[in-house]
Design a protein that fits this description.
Elements (H helix, E strand, L loop, with lengths): L3 E3 L1 H4 L11 E13 L2 E5 L5 E5 L9 H9 L5 E10 L5 E3 L3 E6 L1
Parallel strand pairs: 1-2
Antiparallel strand pairs: 2-3, 2-5, 3-4, 5-6, 5-7
Length: 103
């Protein structure tokens, strides 16, 4: 199987059963709200999803991410995890891993 890479908009409201259980990398998202067990990721078009996992090691940077978001200078986040059916029509990733937090 090939690795899947998709934008945030493909996770929200577009569940695809053929991808269920596959490892997916979601890139180009902007971290919006970080908590110890979840990360809200948005894109520029307004799509958003929660990525659930252990983000406790990143909590010291959560205030900085929030500050950058408010200044409209959010870093781009790349997350990776297992694709599965979410609530409603969308998909979920879980447990999610933050792979990169770049500019």
């Amino acid at each position: 199987m090939t690795l899947l890479t998709m934008p945030v908009s493909d996770i929200v409201g577009n569940y695809d059963e053929s991808k269920d259980g596959r490892t997916v990398t979601v890139s180009g998202g902007l971290p919006d709200k970080m908590e110890r067990s979840s990360l809200l990721i948005r894109d520029g078009a307004g799509y958003a999803f929660y990525c659930y996992g252990d983000f406790s090691e990143y909590m010291n940077g959560a205030a900085k991410i929030d500050s950058l978001r408010q200044e409209r200078k959010s870093p781009v986040a790349t997350v990776k995890d297992t694709y599965k059916k979410g609530n409603g029509n969308g998909a979920d990733l879980g447990p999610c891993v933050l792979m990169d937090l770049g500019k």
